[in-house]
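Table S7 (text form). Paired inputs.
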Amino acid sequence: MGCEEEILIEQVCEIYERISKLESLKPSKDVNMLFTQLVLTCMPPSPIDLTKLSNKRVQETRSKLIKLCGEAEGLLETHFSTLLGTFENPLDHLNIFPYLSNYLKLSLLEFTILTQHYTPQEPPKRIAFVGSGPLPLTSIVLATNHLTAATFHNYDIDPLANSMASRLISTNPDLSKRMFFHTSDVMDVTSELKDYQVVFLAALVGMDKGGKIKVIDHLAKYMAPGATLMVRSAHGARAFLYPVVDPCDLRGFEVLSVFHPTDEVINSVVIARKFPVPMHSPHDHHQGLGPLMLPCKCSDHHIQGFSPLNQLIEEVAIHEEHLS
């Protein structure tokens, strides 16, 4: 490990120690300052691969930090969803959320990726978002700006989060007819998953490697053949903030591309397609085996550092103006 990487890890561990001592992770001056410092430390592109570090202390810190980030993000969204819910038309005031521009850019990135695999004449019509939370900005932005005829089914395990999210779109005559909320653990959602052409998996559904793979395997079992899965991941030092999804984790899917933004959009995006038909071995019926998964060829996947956002800043600015 190089000197720069050692300094980076030490800086992150110091910030973690300070965050772990906070009495609460609800939005406040100290919480906002520390998490901003953490994000700015982890944001610059770095060759570090945190998943391969052998240092047990660093791996434990990373695991705890991801959980703290998830908790803080949930509290932040709850705070602003509550605030937005006090307005007569909440969607007219989304610009009070301090990270709206990040969601606009991430949604634009994900839509741009999707358009490479769907024709403009036949965009996806039914979309599921797993782990939508109390402030479902991705669904709102995609439905408002990009997929204006699609229906969005948002799944979250927390009934309060769904109640808050539903309140935000209830007064909007368009989205209230196209956006639905389901209180379910995704592991209990089975046959309904076949109804969706695209399924988004939020970064914080499955907070560790085992949990994430369990959810992905469940989606592989129940999604429609040929349907698209959009998974949020992390790369480089950003893996201190969010779990990493390796292409090899997507068993039952053909990985189409992995995109690693280098700007303020923190999440990487993995797009995959469920295999059209299960791959069977000719000996399966003799041995009573299930579908045979194709061997993973991570090195064959098209992985690139992709940031179309620099070319689309004007478009983002228009969207921000439209939502503000």
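Next pair, protein 2 of 2.
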Amino acid sequence: MASTPMDIDDASPAAATPSLNITRTLGANVSSTAVVSDVISLFRPTKLFRRDDIKEGKPQPHILSIDFDDPGELCMTSESDETIQLYSVKEGRHDKSLLSKKYGVRLAKFTHTSSSIIYASTKQNDAIRYLATHDNSFIRYFEGHEGAVTNLAMHPGSDNFISCSIDNTVRIWNIGTKQWTGKLYLNSPYLSAWDPSGNIFAVASPTSGSILLYDYRNYEKGPFSIFDVLKARGPADAEAAFRGWTKLEFSNDGKHILLGSRGAGHFLLDAFDGSLKAYLKKPGASTRRLAVGETEGGTVESSGECCFSPDGHFVLSGARSDLVIWDTLTTPSGDKVLDPVHVLEEKRETAVVAYNPRFNMIATADQELVFWLPDPHV
């Protein structure tokens, strides 16, 4: 496998694509996935997917979101041309295109069944749609939002999910019924995330500069804790505490919260008291995507250009170029600034980033999807 982006395998949907030979621990005779810290510096762009169904002269659509199913064997993108694209991770190939021309599509998420997904509408109304991917048929519509949905977060252990919207509500849903089961009224509740236990969820409100934590069993009583990002911003300017937020995520060990920003860095917060553990300083320019809820100053809205590695040890981030990696176990400088431990070369913009939950494999995108694998020959 070549180690430079210029030589990566170009795999348009119609092209013949060799297997990526990804393995995990499946039995005594099957090789296991390596420890993340052993391979994190070895990732290289391995396969590029370029849509070949786009008419000549037309630009490639923007990829709005990336998600993996629970087994890590399928990768899904939602795209600005109102399509959903499905890819086989193990085979390294494009599997299927699903059209949503009538309703539009963004923020596509797998349920805990790999053959069904939910996604937010962008046309006609602001409903969330529940789709069976095997025949592209709708199972249910989740209606109630009166403004664009800005975030969808699946419960880690069940098919309940949270939706956030510019209508200043957060809604909690059970996938078995079309009526929301809970509703919170908040100022700009644009991002949400579940802790790994599924007992706590967080909601991020950029205009109030706060992250609110709720007990899932008693959320009607209000947040049990409120983290003040302005207070915890460290060396970031005050403006970064009130705008430009792109991602909210708990680490899988439950110790940290990642608040992504399109500013000069991301915020790594203590999940228990909201204090700043580190300001993850970016070495170069951020992506050109809009932050959640923004309407001016970019191309299309971000759904998250940063994420934790599955073990919570590292944070990965896209940028105008390159893939940037921070070690969360490293002690930051006196002013809480933490510089990257690795900057992996990538000449394309990396505006959306996702780490496979089961394999050492990363997906990045802007207008083309790229699979990354560790190169043992580096």
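The first helix runs from residue 36 to 39.
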